[in-house]
Amino acid sequence: MKKLLHLLILFTLMSGTALGQMHSPTTYLDILKGLSGKLKLELSYSPDLVALNENTTTQFSANADSCITELEKTANLRITQTDTHLIVASKAPAYIRLQGKVVDAKTGELLPYANILIGKAGAGTITNTEGAFDFKIQGRFAGSLIRFSFLGYKSQQLFIPYASDSSIVVKMIPKPYLLSDVYVLPNGTAAVDIVKRAVKNIKRNYARTTTQMEAFYRNTNYRDTIASQIIEAALLIQDRGINTQPSTTRIQVEELRKSNSYLVPQSKKEKLAFALMDKMFGGHRNILYRAYANSVRYYRMSWWYKPLTDYETFKYEFAGFEWLDSVKVYKIKFIYDKLQPDGKRASENKNSEDGGYIYVSSKDWGVLKMERWWKVLNDRFLTNMVIKDNYIWRTETGYPKISGKYYLKYKTGFATPNGTSAVYENPDAPKKERKIKERQWAEYVLLVTKVITDKKEMDKIRYREKLARDEHTYEAKYPYHPTFWETYNILKENPVQEKFIKEMEWEKSLDIQFKENSSNYANN
Fold first, then answer.
1. Cα of 330 vs its chain's centroid, Å
2. Which long-range contacts (CB under 8 A, 24 or more apart) does 8-14 make?
3. Parallel, antiparallel, or unpaired: how do β-strands 327-336 and 352-361 relate?
4. How far apart are CA 1 and CA 236, in angstroms?
5. Among candidates 23, 146, 140, which has minimal Cα distance to 77?
6. What CATH architecture is 95-175?
7. How would you classify the pairing of strands 95-104 and 165-172?
8. Which one of 3, 42, 43, 308 is at 20 to 30 Å from 183 when CA atoms are compared?
9. Are 359 and 331 contacting, i.e. CB atoms less than 8 angstroms apart?
10. Which fold has domain 2-90?
11. What share of the chain is helix, strand, coil (3-state, %, to 5)?
């Protein structure tokens, strides 16, 4: 009799397990399989329904109807019974629009280029120059975690809401390094040793095979602070890997539009000088290839400026730590220090500083970010070359880690304007006596919106379709298709500032300008 009682108890426990009555973690899919088996129905569901593969320790009712109600509520599912099937679908909309901004929790300062990673989707993006984001994701990822990270801050994790349209403000808490952290370096380790170790690991950390990238490019020109021209392009970039020559990289222009230019054009002498520079060094007129060129990709191939490998020309200083998630990041300052003909080092020049920062992960020695600048400290002649905030030149490049490898995510900086760099009150006076009336300058941003590593998914760029390196981007004309730009989601994530638009439309709308500067208009 006791044996029979024990068997009955065991049978009851096993029956309950089929409906998920267990304390150890199991997936929603396992529970549904047990439920469909008990109901003698065939289970039907979409294999890409993310929620089904998540673990749960919830104890569901042994009653089938109650279990279905509880599953629908807990996993946000819609479960339907027919005569033959148990059909499982998501309650989430087909697509979820997520928008908002990332800010410093203490100061409210907007954080541009913060990393956003949707783990289950295996995809990510970044905030724009204003610290804002606006993107769509498939509804099947509702309820999944989305991670926000930024150098020097604690990472934040949020659940993707089930609503079709959500707006959030992500407040990042600063995570400063402690003074005691500075002394964790092994004895005898110098800043240059960290750079050397990062270079040693470049082949392991960065793609060595062909990668394709979808990217967005924007170039904005100014006369002092007044908007004077805008160029935007949707690009397809094909890179054959870290070990190949820069000339093997191909760029295809999917779409390009440009406005009128309200800049003062270059003089004949300036045009001749730029033409000579382009002939000697190549690629200076094509602002798209120049935007993609970056220090990590061309770490051994740059002809003269190689802060990652030229240890005789540069000197290095340890500038502290920052944090990315729970990983310490070394911040290394490099300074151009070439030996001059007079026997002095370039760094002894107190009039300007040419250098930057290299951010290196202490975990895998990957280069996460590079900053480079040429800054005027005290020089009247060089002051005439200043573009903005005492900088003659400035760039910033970010390399987040995706699926075990680092890829270019963004590059931003100053660019050569589509005109003369300075407008003088007295242009005919000797150089030392000229007075600047207006400065003309440009800045750009290149955002990689998608990385493709599977060759089956790549849209191969044929030789005749690739962008010519000697094409003058400011002068070239492309077809303008308004419908493409109306549906181009990247523009929603990176809108042009209203002030810029207002200043550009003093004569005619931007849409008319785009049409009049296209090949369609020129041909007609």
1. 21
2. none
3. antiparallel
4. 76
5. 140
6. Sandwich (2.60)
7. parallel
8. 308
9. yes
10. Phage tail protein beta-alpha-beta fold (3.55.50)
11. 25, 35, 40
- Are 461 and 234 contacting, i.e. CB atoms less than 8 angstroms apart? no
Q: How many CA atoms lie within 13 A of 203 on its CB side?
A: 5
Is 393 exposed, middle or buried, given 0-12, 13-18 or 19+ CB atoms closer than 10 A? middle
Residue 318 CA to residue 358 CA, distance in Å, equals 10
Q: Is 131 left (phi over 0), alpha (psi -120 to 50) or beta?
A: left
- Condensed to tens digits (0 to 9), the pLDDT of residues 106-162 reads 999 999 888 888 765 556 678 887 888 887 777 777 777 888 988 888 888 888 877
Rounded CA-CA distance 114/128 in Å is 8
Task: Supply the DSSP string of 142-211, one letter for each residue.
Answer: TT-EEEEE-TTB--EEEEPPSSSEEEEEEEEPB-PPPGGGGGGSPTT--HHHHHHHHHHTHHHHB--S-E
Question: Interior CA angle at 496 toward 494 and 499, to 5°?
Answer: 145
Burial-class residue 206 by CB neighbours within 10 Å (0-12, 13-18, 19+): buried
C-beta of residue 90 within 8 angstroms of C-beta of residue 75: no
Q: What pLDDT digit, counting tens, does each position of 43-101 carry?
A: 888 766 656 777 887 888 888 888 888 888 777 778 888 888 888 877 666 678 888 89
CA-closest candidate to residue 258, choices 221, 230, 286: 230
Short-list 85, 96, 86, CA closest to 28: 86
Helices (H) and strands (E) in the chain, counts: 13, 25
Q: What is the pLDDT of residue 402?
A: 80
Phi then psi for residue 268, to 5 deg, are -60, -40
What per-residue confidence (pLDDT) applies to 177? 62
- Name the nearest CA neighbour of 331 among 436, 191, 494, 143: 191
The encoded tokens of residue 431 equal 């150089």
89 in Cβ contact with 45 (< 8 Å): yes
Q: Are 325 and 347 in contact (CB under 8 A)?
A: no
Reported for 172-175, long-range contacts at CB under 8 A and 24+ positions apart, including other chains, are 172/102, 172/103, 172/104, 172/105, 172/111, 172/114, 172/148, 173/105, 173/106, 174/104, 174/105, 174/106, 175/323
Contact 297, 306 (CB under 8 A): no
Q: How far apart are CA 396 and CA 376, in angstroms?
A: 18
- Can you state the angle between helices 64-74 and 28-39, rounded to 10 degrees? 160
Distances (CA, A) of 505 to 18, 70, 220, 262, 419: 67, 57, 14, 11, 20
Return the pLDDT at 372: 93
pTM score: 0.78
228: tokens are 């004077």
Dihedrals φ, ψ of 309, to 5°? Answer: -135, -20
**Segment (H or E) for 103:** strand 95-104
Q: Where are the domains of the chain?
A: 2-90, 95-175, 180-205+295-407, 209-293+441-524
Amino acid type, 326: S
Tell me how far apart the alpha carbons of residues 146 and 283 are, in angstroms, rounded to a whole number. 39
